[in-house]
Amino acid sequence: MNKIKFFALGGLGDTGKNLYVLEINNKLIILDSGLQHPSGDLLGVDALVPDITYLESRKKDIVGIFLSHAHDKNIGALPLLLQTFNKPIYGTDFTIEMAKDLLNENQMDTQKFSFNIVDYKKPLKFFDFKIEFVQTTHSVPLSAAIVIYTQDGAIVYATDYTFDQNVSGYFKTDFQKLALISDYGVLAFLGESNGAINSGHSGTDGNLKRMIRKTLKHASNRIIVSMYSTELANIQLVINEAISANKKIAIIGRKAQRLVYVAEKKGYIKIPSESLVNLKFIDNNNRNEFDDVVFLVTGERHEPFFMLQRMAKGYDRLVNLIESDTILAMAPPLIGTEKIAAKTFNIISEIGCEVTKVDQAYLAQFHAGSEDIKLMYSLLKPKYIIPINGEYRMLQAQANIAKDYGFDNQNILLLDNGEAVTFVSGKVEKHHDTIENGTVMVDGSFETDLNSIVLKERELLSQDGFLIVTANIDAKEKIMLNKPEVISRGYLFMKDNEEIIKQIEIIYELETKKQFSKKTIDWKAYKDNLRHQIQRYLVQTTKRKPIIIPVIIDTCKDHNCRII
């Protein structure tokens, strides 16, 4: 009896954080290991990654980690996995190069791990199943669908794809191989849902090329193009048009510089070396005001907007915007970045720069639209549909597409993270298991996990600031040695609030005398009560709730001190 289980630790109901697991007769296959960029209300959080506690408990059963393409939402959490268990990593040449670059960025020695570059023509054999990579079209080169051939049929994992034919060879879909998979028989299709809410086919719009060309032709001074660093295909398009217009290229943004460097070194994109310009920092002798250079300002999510803001305010070390500059905005606001984008263009308009905003409809869509999804159904002829990779409304949109296409409701499996569906001899069991899952908030490094208490404290700090109350006592003699010193940051200007300071001194004196009346001082209760009473007074008086930090220094007669 053949038993296959599928579940996600991230990617279902998420925009990113893709991590899917196939269990075939007790052997685990990990499909991608991505992160999610946080929204603005998660203060100080650098990334959201899946909780892999369950995988850690079963690391002996893990066969390997199979990566579909080189985007953070698919490879960004790889350092977390490899810090937890050292398992072989499989991917195409470009994906593996970017995975190694990611590990280097996290100060991890790539030599300690087994990286395997797959050959599209050679399936990988494991136990009683084999795995094959099939080239698909996406915004980075050598993206792939991953096909797992089992005794009960193939399972096709296609997390990001389109069928756009206006792309170069390293971005093209292998239609022939996709069609051949159906001859084997497809048990389940695990297909992306990010573009399912869009009707029609996704792909390149010829208007985009014309708009870029027109902008380059009519600009009188510098041209600054804002883009997302993940869209390497669009970056190549701008580079091509710039070269055609006899202009040079300056790429600004660490992520894009690394992507372009690796892709250019491997030959997946083409930039004549003489066309690249290395900018110098602005000083009295250099302003980087070249009218024959196209400046690519790149980043992820909010980064292109923040970089433009810095340039507009004169804070940037490479480019300071002036009235004669032309801005070509090819990074439309994403969900959660609308306010940042509006503020950015407002600041730029005050300078007087000419701004051309590229409509979302003109930009190449790198996620399968409704007709692309139907075309994939036609090529594969799967028995079951499992929508993945997207917010729940997107998953539901693909489920509706599948119904319209002709799939029965019982063959469309809508799941949540941690909900496992099991196939026994090619048929779905009625009852679904649940797998331990969750989200880990990363602050700085993958070794740091934030909890809700820390985030709440950060929120309070950002809104109401904090107050430090420092005082010296002699605990042995039970004497208050001085009045407390009150320091405010982001709360009140204390010199204008002497009455508040006097009241804090009274509260300190009362709480200290209470502790002195006891046989021994309960230091925890002492600080907790002091914190509570001061905060209570401040809320009543100022209607604000700063974080209170009491610092009590126990000073003995021999001048030895300890901070409580």
CATH topology of the largest domain: Metallo-beta-lactamase, Chain A
Instruction: Write the CATH architecture name of the largest domain.
Output: 4-Layer Sandwich
Rg, Cα atoms, Å: 29 Å
Q: What is the end-to-end distance?
A: 64 Å
What best-fitting shape do the alpha-carbon axes yield? globular
Low-confidence stretches: none
Number of helical elements: 15
The first-level CATH class name of the largest domain: Alpha Beta
Keywords for this entry:
Metallo-beta-lactamase, Chain A, single chain, alpha/beta, Rossmann fold, 28 strands, Ubiquitin-like (UB roll), 564 residues, 6-stranded mixed beta sheet
State the gist of this model.
This protein is of the alpha/beta class. It is globular and about 90 Å long.
